[in-house]
Design brief:
43% helix; elongated; 3 helices; 23% strand; alpha+beta; 2 strands; 2 domains
Length: 98
């Protein structure tokens, strides 16, 4: 009987290659969950997931993390400055009434 050798793929794709491709191109997963009883819709949950690199997201016009005060110290400073201006206006209004 002839001996059979196991063949291995020489161009195997590893996890790092797949991740690099996904981050480079981006991937979107979308789905909806609905809970109904007797044709009465109780709840609908819409799930949207996008996985992409920061560069790809910005290329697509998505940059919400830059204005989120929980994620950006720059956004925190802008919020503080806006709040200070609001308080100064309130103080000036109170002074003018007195």
């Amino acid at each position: 009987m002839a001996e059979q050798k196991m063949m291995h793929a020489t161009n195997a794709t590893n996890l790092a290659d797949i991740l690099e491709r996904v981050l480079d191109k981006g991937i979107v997963i979308a789905g909806d969950i609905q809970i109904r009883i007797a044709d009465i819709e109780l709840i609908t949950i819409k799930i949207r997931l996008m996985i992409a690199s920061v560069d790809k997201a910005m290329e697509m016009g998505i940059n919400w993390w830059q204005t989120d005060s929980y994620l950006s110290s720059k956004a925190q400073e802008l919020e503080k400055e806006e709040r200070i201006k609001e308080l100064e206006e309130e103080v000036n209004q109170l002074k003018s009434k007195a």
